[in-house]
Amino acid sequence: MAVIVRVWDAPTRLFHWALVLCFVGLLVTSQVGGTAMDWHFRFGYAVLTLLLFRVVWGLFGGHWSRFSTFIVGLPQIWRYLRGQGKPHDAVGHNPLGALSILAVLSLLAMQVASGLMSDDEIAAAGPLTRFVPSDWVSVATYYHKDIGKYILLGLVALHLGAIAFYYFRKQDNLVKPMITGDKLVPFEAPSAGDGWTERGRAGLVFLACAALVGSVVTGLNG
Predict the structure, then answer these.
(1) What is the chain's pLDDT, residue by residue, as a tens digit (222 residues)?
(2) CA-CA-CA-CA torsion for 137, 54, 67, 73, nearest 10 degrees?
(3) What number of H helices and E strands is found in the chain?
(4) Which of 15, 70, 113, 163 could disulfide-link 93, Cβ–Cβ 3.0 to 4.6 Å?
(5) What distance lies between CA 72 and its chain's CA centroid?
(6) Are the beta carbons of 2 and 186 closer than 8 angstroms?
(7) Residue 159 contacts residue 100 (beta carbons within 8 Å)
(8) What is the C-alpha to C-alpha distance for residues 55 and 59, in angstroms, rounded to an integer?
(9) Among residues 44, 42, 55, which one has the least CA distance to residue 15?
(10) Euclidean distance between CA atoms 140 and 110, whole angstroms
(11) Bridge partners of 183?
(12) Model's pTM, two decimal places?
């Protein structure tokens, strides 16, 4: 019997699509340059806020958004690759999807950190450049412009390819649940808490993360 399960709570869905918009904004502003770099930094600070929120929400958020439900060890990944995964692997992030998510979050954090220490020697310099040695600035700038960006683009392409594979080969639409929150599964499974209490708590967490990033950035630029 098929059961509708609330897989992705509203805060997780909003995080996902906000991150997509910020990533696109970062790409566009990095290519335009000039005064658009002001927006590049704003998008970067927004990504940092979103990453902080996701870390907290990964500990206290909805069931399927918690790291404890999808971070597994190598034996579980190997069993999944051999087609011996558990039924619940098909509900939230499967073991391979979990690796992809962790890689994207980690590399985004590295991209933000390197951006804070980057200097294009023309008009834009990260707020940490005056606090770190010049050789750090050079390495961070090179990584940010010529390495990290392309690794992230590769991961995004891999992510989109996986979505297409699941849609066309397995008839599994991974995008729809990230829009509606619900997924149809052939067995009983826990639903993510997604009431107004949980959403209010998520809003407070996000505001706290935004306030923290804003105060740090203001201090660094002051």
Answers:
(1) 688 999 999 999 999 999 999 999 999 998 886 788 899 999 999 999 999 999 999 999 999 999 999 888 888 888 888 888 787 887 899 888 899 999 999 999 999 999 999 998 777 889 999 999 999 999 999 999 999 999 999 999 999 999 999 899 988 899 999 999 999 988 888 999 899 999 999 999 999 999 999 999 999 887
(2) -20
(3) 9, 2
(4) 70
(5) 18
(6) yes
(7) yes
(8) 7
(9) 55
(10) 9
(11) 5
(12) 0.94
**Mind listing the domains of the chain with CATH numbers?**
3-221 (1.20.950.20)
20: its two tokens: 């997509």
What one-letter code names the amino acid at 101? I
Residue found by looking up tokens 């909805």 in the block = 62
User: Of 91, 31, 102, nearest to 63 (Cα)?
Assistant: 91
Cβ(105)–Cβ(112) under 8 Å?
no
- Long-range contacts of the stretch 213-218 (C-beta < 8 A, 24+): 213/45, 213/48, 213/49, 213/52, 214/45, 217/45, 217/127
pLDDT in tens, 127-138: 999 999 999 999
Q: Which phi and psi angles does 186 have, rounded to 5°?
A: -85, 25
